Task: structure prediction
Amino acid sequence: MKSETQVKEHRVSALKLYLHYISIQIRSMMQYKKSFFMTMFGQFLTSFNAFIGIHFLFLRFHSIEDYSYSDVLLCVSIVLMDFSLAECIARGFDSFPKIVRQGGFDRIMTRPRNEILQVLGSHFELTRIGRMIQGAIVFIYGTTHAGIEWNFVRVLTVIFMLIGGTGVFCGIFLINAALCFFTLEGLEVINIFTDGAREYGAYPIDVYGKRMMRFCTFVIPYSLVQVYPLKFLTGRSDNILYALLPLAALLFLIPGYVFWRFGVRKYTSSGS
Amino acid sequence: MSKFFARRKRYVSFFKLRFAMGLQYRTAALAGIMTQFVWGFMEISVFRAFHQSNSAAFPMGFEQLASYIWMQQAFLALFMTWFMENEIFDSIMDGNICYELCRPIDIYDMWFARSVANRTSRALLRCIPVLSAAFFLPQPYRMILPPDPLTFICFIAAMLLGMTVTVSLCMIIYMLSFFTVSPQGLRIIFAMTAELLQGIVIPIPFFPPRIQKIMELLPFASMENVPLRIYSGNISGMEAAKAMLLQAFWVIILTAAGKLICRSAMNKITVQGG
Result:
């Protein structure tokens, strides 16, 4: 009886602990306010060029396959928001190679808490909000031009897209972190699936052809959070399933988690 | 005269040292090659989709574009303004610069030689695999050879000029960071501007004609825009000669400006601490 209440307390405080981690991170960042806002502004700028590029390409070509400028704006803004949310939350996985190399993971394992929770709590990149804001602005601009008839299901679709997309990117960060157990350093190749997806996910994936579409549906489920729900959002399809697919993309986290567990079990200390 | 050669020898050995160091990072290079390859492929795919939607609006031949993109990926290290040396920024920030100042050599020339070596070693490692793969891809992704040997020679010359423009622009940024507390903001704004105006985001021919005319006069267009367009055959003859002349003009102006800022920075510099 006693142990059961203990377990319950333990669970409740996991979320509390995470929030506590985040509040520490934010407070420490706020000690360097100028640097924080500078980085945030830099983050805002870095993805700005992509929009300028898209703007001029559409000024010249007017459409890509059968997608218009506003469709692409919706697409690029949602992908950007997904990515920056994931970077915000799962930044700890991104800097995980350093934790492993310096032996920091040994310290994490000695604590009676979930490892993932601790890694997530080790880093919270609020500066990515800069990109997030930009994504939101472009999204609003895109929707006013796309002429979407908003209803409850469509709003829900956008929320699902954000959740699913953030999940997919977090999954990739998780896999990259798990790889560190074997290689002790981050694999730069993984950038293809993070930065590459952010850059080239600007366009609905079906413009890249059938093969790419299949890869992005069954291997890494970018399509499920991008083209399919976009089709539903812009009224190209009435299939309600398309609105729900982003949630299915969250299944991607499962193999990532299994791989992580496998890595943790295989892990034989490092650093000094 | 002999003094001149003796001095030059120093920079050559600096160059050699840095070059050998650059060649050490082979796994990083491998990852870079993979990334560059996928990037090039995706980039061409996007343009292919635009081409299919509205081929009349395409400002250059599609093979020209494919060659442009592959060359851009292969020689990324020569022209990217992101690749600036943290070591130099750090030494300016933390005062280690004083050790460099003790050396009986010109700091501008030393950093210049160092940057050139870093960029060429990086590019040499990466260009061969990317290019050799690009020549064997199926159409329309395949890269083409330049139309004639003269074009190729012009391309090489324009590329060297372009790299010199890039390095001398970066040198100005290094020198300006003597005057700020944190060069981070300066660096980001510079890199973003260069990325857009040198034609990395989209090649310059894809901009509206009026904007394009202005862009082509700026130093940024003298970086990768000229050699890549000469190689792909997008510009040739008099047009190419004019573009190369403009490159040479910017090399002179930018290095002179860099040296000038360098001198004034050296005059006011105070290194504290011990």
